[in-house]
């Protein structure tokens, strides 16, 4: 029974990792499309180069936020999901 329980938890963990990887990939692809849509929406107002620079600037502002809130947004969530998976 103990071996089956370990196998069940390993399968759940791999399933969760695969789902996170697939959802991250889809989110990344969607973010690319939204970025290009934003650039083309800003293009008539400021030109192509400035629109691309503006969107890149937004990413450079968001990047430090992820670094600052990494523990709160990513680490705690990961621990909570893994703990709930192992408690079942």
Characterize the structure shown.
This protein is mostly helical. Helix content is 95%, strand content 0%. The protein is built from three helices and no strands. The chain has helices at residues 2-46, 48-68, 70-87. Helix 1 runs antiparallel to helix 2. The longest helix is centred in the first third of the chain and has 45 residues, at 2-46. The protein is elongated, with a radius of gyration of 20 Å. The chain starts with a helix and ends with a helix.
List keywords for this structure.
88 residues; mainly alpha; 3 helices; 95% helix
Topology summary:
Blueprint: H1 2-46, H2 48-68, H3 70-87
Helix run count: 3
Rg, please? 20 Å
Shape: elongated
Main sheet? none
Rounded to the nearest angstrom, the distance between the terminal CA atoms is 15 Å
Mean pLDDT: 86
Order of helices and strands: HHH
Oligomer: single chain
Structural class: mainly alpha
Strand content: under 5%
* Number of DSSP-assigned strands: 0
- Name the helicity range: over 70%
In short:
Helix content is 95%, strand content 0%. The chain is mostly helical and 88 residues long.
């Amino acid at each position: 029974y103990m071996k089956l329980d370990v196998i069940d938890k390993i399968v759940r963990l791999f399933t969760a990792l695969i789902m996170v990887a697939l959802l991250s990939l889809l989110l990344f692809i969607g973010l690319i499309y939204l970025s290009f849509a934003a650039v083309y929406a800003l293009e008539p107002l400021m030109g192509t180069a400035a629109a691309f620079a503006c969107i890149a600037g937004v990413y450079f502002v968001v990047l430090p936020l992820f670094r600052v809130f990494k523990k709160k947004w990513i680490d705690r969530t990961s621990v909570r999901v893994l703990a709930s998976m192992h408690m079942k």
